[in-house]
Amino acid sequence: MAPQYPNPNLEVLTDLQSQPLSIIRLSESISSTTPNPTQTQNDNNPQARTSDISASAINNDASDPQPTPTSLAADLSHYRDLFSKLRFSYLEQVTKEKFLRAIVGDPPLIVESSENVELEKQLGEIKAVLKMQKEDVAR
Fold first, then answer.
1. Of all helices (H) and strands (E), which one includes residue 103?
2. 3-class DSSP state for residue 83?
3. pTM, whole model, 2 decimals?
4. How far apart are CA 70 and CA 77, in angstroms?
5. pLDDT, tens digit, for every residue of 108-118?
6. Residue 94: left if φ>0, alpha if ψ -120 to 50, beta else—which one?
């Protein structure tokens, strides 16, 4: 029989602790989560997530409902920066997770210098091919 907790949040936390944490597994559940109904939102639909600054600016501006090319270019630049930061953060977290799994795993993954030399050689070959492809595209 599972222990009874007076606080429902404590029960949820203990359930979450029984499952192994993984950045990749957690990222899959983000799209399926719904926002907290106690939070207030600006629009009539409490389930809608508003994260688009340009859309809210367009909806609030009754005199000019169409976005201008300048505002679209600024939005595009802004979102490129955000996605670049998000990509870097995601790759950093996945790398940390893989590193920790390699250290803590049974048996621990031990990399020898000969393996590093072989990987560096492969990387050099791949970089040379990439450089040639970039030069072909530039022509």
1. helix 69-104
2. helix
3. 0.37
4. 11
5. 778 899 999 99
6. alpha
